[in-house]
Amino acid sequence: AAxxxxxxxHLIKEKRETATLKxxxxxRHDTVYWYQQGPGQDPQFxxxxxxxxxxxxxxxxxRFSAQQFSDYHSELNMSSLELGDSALYFCASSRGQGxxxxxxxxxxxxxxxxxx
Amino acid sequence: xxxxxxxPLFLSMQEGKNYTIYCxxxxxxxxxxxxxxxxxxSLESLFVLLSNGAVKQEGRLMASLDTKARLSTLHITAxxxxxxxxxxxxxxxxxxxxxxxxxxxxxGTHLIIQP
Lengths: 116, 115
Prior knowledge:
Order of helices and strands of chain A: EEEEEEEEEEE
CATH class of chain B: Mainly Beta
Mean pLDDT of chain B: 91
Largest sheet of chain B: 6 strands, mixed
CATH superfamily of chain A: Immunoglobulins
Strand content of chain A: over 45%
CATH superfamily of chain B: Immunoglobulins
Radius of gyration of chain A: 14 Å
CATH topology of chain A: Immunoglobulin-like
Shape of chain B: globular
Oligomer: heterodimer
Strand content of chain B: over 45%
Distance between the termini of chain B: 41 Å
Number of helices of chain A: 0
Shape of chain A: globular
Number of domains of chain B: 1
Helix content of chain A: under 10%
Number of strands of chain B: 11
Order of helices and strands of chain B: EEEEEEEEEEE
CATH topology of chain B: Immunoglobulin-like
Low-confidence stretches of chain A: none
Structural class of chain A: mainly beta
CATH architecture of chain B: Sandwich
Largest sheet of chain A: 7 strands, mixed
Distance between the termini of chain A: 36 Å
Radius of gyration of chain B: 14 Å
């Protein structure tokens, strides 16, 4: 079965640079979620989109922005990178909002970002 | 603010033994998930619990949900080395449309099973 695709899988950046992470949801999934997991930490919810509109916002820094496109893929844009941004970034996708009883989130393999 | 507390955070056990991981949460949500994560890997969905009294079993793992007590448990029976991993519980708060917002995770239980 098709899974969530994330690219790149690994990314190395210098401080103050910018980075863009991409997420391609499972086919027919219309909701995308972004999570950040620091070393030894639990995943922290950043932001989510449903039908190209922001549906929920978590602990996303102001330096980060995200959007969902017409094909439902999503991009997380990160600017003025800091050492503390080094983490695993997961994207998850689910299908439906409101019309279904629940929306199980399926996680992608993650992008490991290292800021030097 | 939703809080999710797991305990223990670290667990070392011998193969063949039984143990339980606990997950307490502060909201009235009836949607709880258990995930497994191997080092540097993604989150693998283990169980989806959607109602009070829900019990699900897969192999040596069994999860249950008590929404009145706001408690979920993950029970390991006759542990084997391959179950060594970090286990997270996560709680979902439904949004106003009946769909899902971001999950709130517990801190995780780092489980080591020694042969």
